[in-house]
Amino acid sequence: MSKATDIVSPDHAAADHDDHHDHHIPKGLMRWVLTTNHKDIGTLYLWFAFIMFLTGGAMAMVIRAELFQPGLQIVDPNFFNQMTTVHGLIMVFGAVMPAFTGLANWLVPMMIGAPDMALPRMNNWSFWILPFAFSILLASLFLEGGGPAFGWTFYAPLSTTYSGDSTALFVFSVHIMGISSIMGAINVIVTIFNMRAPGMTWMKMPLFVWTWLITAFLLIAVMPVLAGAVTMVLTDKFFGTSFFDAAGGGDPVMFQHIFWFFGHPEVYIMILPAFGIISQIVPTFARKPLFGYASMVYATASIALLSFIVWAHHMFTTGMPVAAEMFFMFATMLISVPTGVKVFNWVATMWRGSMTFEIPMMFALAFIVLFTIGGLSGLMLAITPVDFQYHDTYFVVAHFHYVLVTGAVFSIMAAVYYWLPKWTGRMFDITLAKWHFWCSLISVNLLFFPMHFVGLAGMPRRIPDYALQFADFNKWISIGGFAFGLSQLIFLWVMIKACRKQGEPVSSQVWEGAEGLEWEIPSPAPYHSFETPPVVK
Amino acid sequence: MQHQEYQKYYVPAQSVWPIVGAVALFLIAVGAGNFVIETTRGESGYGDNILAVGIVVLLVMLFGWFRDQINESMSGLYSDQLGRSYRQGMSWFIFSEVMFFAAFFGALFYARVIALPWLSGESNNAMTNEVLWPGFEAMWPLIETPGGVSTTAMSWSGLPTINTVILLISSVTLHFAHVGLEQGKRKQLTAMLGITILLGCGFLFLQVEEYVHAYRDLGLTLQSGIYGNTFFLLTGFHGMHVTLGTIILMVLFLRVLKGHFTHDNHFAFQAGSWYWHFVDVVWVMLYVFVYVL
């Protein structure tokens, strides 16, 4: 792996360009609206994701404010439900997924020695659909009767019989989000298949590229199933079909099967790129090649394949034959094997390495520890008989926030801090970044760790009120939530300073132990990274 | 190795069409959403107008984008690598379509194999049947729903079988059109492609006939329970895909008449032909699982 990426002759100066895509960059707003450049589009994706992260975060603040003490005080229950629903939708489809797509846009072409993505115009289309899709979703909150209030999982009959009219807008905005995701995934997959520089063989590809390749496959496989699910919800609600209504021969549980057939691979869509990021960062700061590169690739593929046969572990309590419950329990537990391989490999990479603890490494280490906590609570949830106790409690909320916030989101922050100097050509404000890290780390645990306790004690999810015995924990959870929200403003500050090109210029390698094609081109990376393919030995 | 020449990357220039496409999808989503809401409420509003504008903008975008694309391709700008990207992209797009249909086939199988038997008391659901849906018995096609709506099953003989034959023949004719293109036999190409389009139109015509028959004579509607639901959504989405496929073939036909495509450079033709074969395979699945079995 370490020797894989020497460039032999990327002679930029001698390369003759076609004049219509030379190095002059169009200016102003139209640069961003019309761009076909993978770096511009990556930046757009990342800023969009950040804005959505803050928007969804603001909704989380509403939820935590309401739950600060027992009783109903700030918002009415219907609005509370809209907040939990739209918070989930925005964080999943608006923050985490676009952030990963943005990283893929920025990094995949640089890592495989390509000038750009394979289909640059479609790339622009995939991005610009998103702001429109989310403005529809957010606008529906202001409609008469309010926005979607059935949870991000939109279970029937909540989303059919008992939902408001805005469901139609929800359905169509999910449709166009799905179109965006599928096009983005096709682009990534084709880029990786077809644009690798000579010598960049499959087993030399950086793990971020590998994990994104597999993620893209998952996206193409399951986003259409989500489209099918929302279509059935639409026809059930508005056109008199009865897919999810027993009176017509359908079944509400069928909704859950279709949804989670999408939903479980979706979970891995949000974590596999994170695994890739951590596998890039840990070797750099441990100054050792990644331990078990091949096993990392196989583990990623195994997780992806297993993700198609575990969906019903989300539905242990909703009615299945015992044999099915057993199957889904064991299949789910099987996933802990490849995941364990990954955690083991990260730790083994650090073993006897010359470790230093720069900001990206701090986030990566926090990821490894805290994601593992989320993984272990996932194992507890996988055990069918005890899931009957945990189901729909705050224990589940604690579990998936550990894997998604301290997992996916922390990995995105690690990635941004790791590659930001490459993007801007300057080092970010390290002092502020340290504040961001420590404030986030402490507050996020204050926020999510006590949720395990209230969950085990029986506090249900998605309810704006709770029994008095949960009051103390919830107060601390809310304080942690507000602190975590405020900590992200430090992140915003660091990013604004970085985009204004403040800070010391950096070398092309940036980090002492960094290896890979993206560290061999100048910082900031040129508009088109590679005009002619570099040869990888 | 070191001095080997590699084909230069081709990076397409900026284009206005993607953002036009994004606006089109925005208008379609807003328009369709409001249209659905207004229709069910029985109100009049702007939903249908916004939807119509969105569709027009989308068509303009498709026309413009493809025109630019064809001009660039005809002026020899594209590299082999880009051609491979297009082919791979089209294959993955078709895979995503397969998964879209899989969701509806999944609903069909779940209803037949699990939901209906359970409603009639199988597995451990005896009380479900006795208390909630007394007297309900699972059957397929479900001509009497648990809620008491009755309908008539669509027979597999007659129109569906004719349509199956039509689509299968059209796949063969399209294949021979492709062979003609590859061997430089332009007459065979034009004739076979023309026949394929006519067969596609014939299929769509008969499909409309079948829908009229279902609604008028059989009382089989979108609201007739899970049988009607899966029947109309599966055949309906398939019909939309045949319509799109036929339009694609028509565009290809016009391009063939203009002398486009060579024996080794005809991505658009290949993509359109893949799409058509895909649509045919979906129909065969439909014929087996929706009509015959």
From TrEMBL, chain A:
<comment type="function">
    <text>Cytochrome c oxidase is the component of the respiratory chain that catalyzes the reduction of oxygen to water. Subunits 1-3 form the functional core of the enzyme complex. CO I is the catalytic subunit of the enzyme. Electrons originating in cytochrome c are transferred via the copper A center of subunit 2 and heme A of subunit 1 to the bimetallic center formed by heme A3 and copper B.</text>
</comment>
<keyword id="KW-0349">Heme</keyword>
<feature type="transmembrane region" description="Helical">
    <location>
        <begin position="85"/>
        <end position="108"/>
    </location>
</feature>
<dbReference type="GO" id="GO:0015990">
    <property type="term" value="P:electron transport coupled proton transport"/>
</dbReference>
<dbReference type="InterPro" id="IPR023616">
    <property type="entry name" value="Cyt_c_oxase-like_su1_dom"/>
</dbReference>
<dbReference type="GO" id="GO:0020037">
    <property type="term" value="F:heme binding"/>
</dbReference>
<feature type="transmembrane region" description="Helical">
    <location>
        <begin position="359"/>
        <end position="383"/>
    </location>
</feature>
<keyword id="KW-0186">Copper</keyword>
<feature type="transmembrane region" description="Helical">
    <location>
        <begin position="395"/>
        <end position="420"/>
    </location>
</feature>
<keyword id="KW-0813">Transport</keyword>
<dbReference type="InterPro" id="IPR036927">
    <property type="entry name" value="Cyt_c_oxase-like_su1_sf"/>
</dbReference>
<feature type="region of interest" description="Disordered">
    <location>
        <begin position="1"/>
        <end position="22"/>
    </location>
</feature>
<dbReference type="GO" id="GO:0006119">
    <property type="term" value="P:oxidative phosphorylation"/>
</dbReference>
<feature type="transmembrane region" description="Helical">
    <location>
        <begin position="44"/>
        <end position="65"/>
    </location>
</feature>
<feature type="transmembrane region" description="Helical">
    <location>
        <begin position="170"/>
        <end position="195"/>
    </location>
</feature>
<dbReference type="InterPro" id="IPR014241">
    <property type="entry name" value="Cyt_c_oxidase_su1_bac"/>
</dbReference>
<keyword id="KW-0472">Membrane</keyword>
<dbReference type="InterPro" id="IPR033944">
    <property type="entry name" value="Cyt_c_oxase_su1_dom"/>
</dbReference>
<feature type="compositionally biased region" description="Basic and acidic residues">
    <location>
        <begin position="13"/>
        <end position="22"/>
    </location>
</feature>
<dbReference type="InterPro" id="IPR023615">
    <property type="entry name" value="Cyt_c_Oxase_su1_BS"/>
</dbReference>
<dbReference type="GO" id="GO:0005886">
    <property type="term" value="C:plasma membrane"/>
</dbReference>
<feature type="transmembrane region" description="Helical">
    <location>
        <begin position="476"/>
        <end position="496"/>
    </location>
</feature>
Automatic annotation (TrEMBL), chain B:
<feature type="transmembrane region" description="Helical">
    <location>
        <begin position="49"/>
        <end position="66"/>
    </location>
</feature>
<protein>
    <recommendedName>
        <fullName>cytochrome-c oxidase</fullName>
        <ecNumber>7.1.1.9</ecNumber>
    </recommendedName>
</protein>
<keyword id="KW-0812">Transmembrane</keyword>
<keyword id="KW-1278">Translocase</keyword>
<comment type="similarity">
    <text>Belongs to the cytochrome c oxidase subunit 3 family.</text>
</comment>
<dbReference type="InterPro" id="IPR000298">
    <property type="entry name" value="Cyt_c_oxidase-like_su3"/>
</dbReference>
<dbReference type="GO" id="GO:0019646">
    <property type="term" value="P:aerobic electron transport chain"/>
</dbReference>
<feature type="transmembrane region" description="Helical">
    <location>
        <begin position="92"/>
        <end position="111"/>
    </location>
</feature>
<feature type="transmembrane region" description="Helical">
    <location>
        <begin position="156"/>
        <end position="177"/>
    </location>
</feature>
<feature type="transmembrane region" description="Helical">
    <location>
        <begin position="189"/>
        <end position="206"/>
    </location>
</feature>
<keyword id="KW-1133">Transmembrane helix</keyword>
<dbReference type="InterPro" id="IPR013833">
    <property type="entry name" value="Cyt_c_oxidase_su3_a-hlx"/>
</dbReference>
<dbReference type="InterPro" id="IPR035973">
    <property type="entry name" value="Cyt_c_oxidase_su3-like_sf"/>
</dbReference>
<dbReference type="GO" id="GO:0004129">
    <property type="term" value="F:cytochrome-c oxidase activity"/>
</dbReference>
<feature type="domain" description="Heme-copper oxidase subunit III family profile">
    <location>
        <begin position="5"/>
        <end position="293"/>
    </location>
</feature>
<feature type="transmembrane region" description="Helical">
    <location>
        <begin position="16"/>
        <end position="37"/>
    </location>
</feature>
<dbReference type="InterPro" id="IPR033945">
    <property type="entry name" value="Cyt_c_oxase_su3_dom"/>
</dbReference>
<dbReference type="InterPro" id="IPR024791">
    <property type="entry name" value="Cyt_c/ubiquinol_Oxase_su3"/>
</dbReference>
<keyword id="KW-0472">Membrane</keyword>
<dbReference type="GO" id="GO:0005886">
    <property type="term" value="C:plasma membrane"/>
</dbReference>
<feature type="transmembrane region" description="Helical">
    <location>
        <begin position="226"/>
        <end position="254"/>
    </location>
</feature>
<dbReference type="Pfam" id="PF00510">
    <property type="entry name" value="COX3"/>
</dbReference>
